Q: What sequence folds into this?
């Protein structure tokens, strides 16, 4: 179709921003120092805006995007609304700390940002759930993207904890989060294999042994899930750098997973090419 | 309620591509884009018992159109007589409808930055004429009309062919209304067609 790169960027950056936003909320609740939390919130805002820009690039006429707001029944409507709430909450969080607001206020903004960002990640993942398309007729897709968001959250939390000097024990959560994400990713694969039509026409095997297997095994599994765990557990010096590299790996894995899901679901009949 | 659609008789279609060309001319479709494309299915079987047929492909005018459901601005909509149209004033070119269409029957116009598809020549319908592809078909293989009207051309063609010879593209809950007539002697209808691009 031509806009899958932009959609890959949008989905992966939204998951990244959502994970960071949740980590910021967790850090705020645990009374972490303000500076790393504010820096992380600004990073989350930046990634969200970058994702929005990527989405805008996928549109033929981005100047008309606000026409979406007149159509509450569409998935895109909720993506725009939740994106707005997340950005506003994160910005309010940063400004509230800048004005030394009360704890209840900053925590309120942090929790709102974290919750709306997770819902945004879920909404973006749900955009591909289509009952009339065999390979996309499952909620395992948004669940998998929530899994990616969870991995990013544990790594982002670890990074904030390192910057705050409170990183004791944060490495333990990373393998558990990666394990959950692996389970959710393979839940989607299991869904494909459980459909007799997708099995018979070879679609179900495309990510495992077919044309999508390099993207799946290298991008999704190796770079996206195994490498981050290895980076975090193996490193002793420069742990912040290793954690940030791990986040970058998960970002690549998220984008690769989006590409695999997208390509699997493209219509068998494709009359007119892309 | 009316349901305007096409019926295409594959027993008669000779693959001359006149419908494809007429469509492009009538709708000023740029190079590389199609609203209607003739695909070649087959050959099937072993020599000398080989069969082949031509499949003019087009928007399937689904009763439960996925493209209408996913459109974020309401640009894709269903008319009162069952046709699926695109309001280009509202289209933002997100291409969600292109991803949603089970048949890949839509196309993106890079000049106008909107998605386009077969409109069953509604501008010709407005002046009482049939779609260009129907008018130009030299084999009289294309029929246009209201499926809910038993006296329409489409209903008569379906009745004449017999239910065992009337087929449709795979239905995954979207209920395509376009019908294809194909007798077994001329070819085996492909329920699971090969991927085409």
A:
């Amino acid at each position: 179709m031509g806009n899958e790169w932009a959609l890959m960027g949008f989905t992966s950056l939204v998951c990244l921003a959502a994970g960071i936003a949740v980590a910021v909320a967790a850090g705020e609740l645990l009374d972490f120092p303000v500076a790393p939390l504010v820096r992380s919130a600004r990073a989350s805002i930046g990634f969200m805006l970058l994702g929005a820009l990527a989405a805008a690039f996928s549109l033929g006429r981005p100047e008309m995007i606000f026409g979406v707001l007149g159509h509450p029944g569409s998935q895109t409507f909720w993506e725009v609304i939740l994106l707005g709430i997340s950005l506003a909450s994160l910005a309010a969080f940063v400004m509230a700390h800048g004005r030394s607001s009360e704890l209840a206020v900053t925590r309120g903004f942090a929790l709102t940002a974290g919750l709306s960002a997770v819902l945004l990640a879920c909404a973006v993942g749900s955009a591909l759930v289509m009952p009339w398309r065999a390979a996309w007729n499952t909620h395992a897709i948004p669940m998998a993207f929530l899994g990616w968001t969870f991995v990013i959250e544990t790594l982002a939390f670890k990074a904030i904890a390192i910057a705050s000097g409170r990183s004791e024990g944060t490495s333990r959560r990373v393998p558990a989060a990666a394990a959950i994400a692996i389970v959710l990713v393979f839940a989607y694969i299991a869904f494909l294999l459980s459909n007799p039509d997708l099995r018979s026409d070879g679609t179900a095997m495309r990510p495992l042994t077919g044309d999508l297997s390099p993207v799946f095994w290298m991008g999704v599994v190796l770079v996206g899930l195994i490498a981050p765990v290895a980076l975090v557990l193996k490193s002793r010096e420069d742990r912040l750098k290793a954690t940030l590299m791990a986040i970058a790996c998960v970002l690549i894995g998220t984008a690769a997973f989006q590409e695999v899901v997208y390509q699997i679901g493209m219509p068998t009949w494709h009359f007119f090419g892309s | 309620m009316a349901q305007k659609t096409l019926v295409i008789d594959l027993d008669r279609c000779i693959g001359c591509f006149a419908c494809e060309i007429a469509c492009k001319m009538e709708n000023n479709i740029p190079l590389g884009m199609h609203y209607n494309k003739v695909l070649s299915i087959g050959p099937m079987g072993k020599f000398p018992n080989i069969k082949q047929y031509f499949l003019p492909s087009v928007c399937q005018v689904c009763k439960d159109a996925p493209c209408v459901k996913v459109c974020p601005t309401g640009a894709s909509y269903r008319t009162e007589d069952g046709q699926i149209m695109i309001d280009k004033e509202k289209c933002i070119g997100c291409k969600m409808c292109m991803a949603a269409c089970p048949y890949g029957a839509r196309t993106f116009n890079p000049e106008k930055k909107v998605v386009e598809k077969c409109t069953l020549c509604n501008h010709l319908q407005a002046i009482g004429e049939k779609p260009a592809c129907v008018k130009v078909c030299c084999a009289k293989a294309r029929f246009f009309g209201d499926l809910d009207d038993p006296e329409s051309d489409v209903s008569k063609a379906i009745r004449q062919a017999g239910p065992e010879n009337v087929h449709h593209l795979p239905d995954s809950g979207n209920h395509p209304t376009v019908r294809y007539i194909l007798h077994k002697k001329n070819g085996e209808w492909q329920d699971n067609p090969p991927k085409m691009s």
Notes: The mean pLDDT of chain B is 91. Chain B has six helices and ten strands.
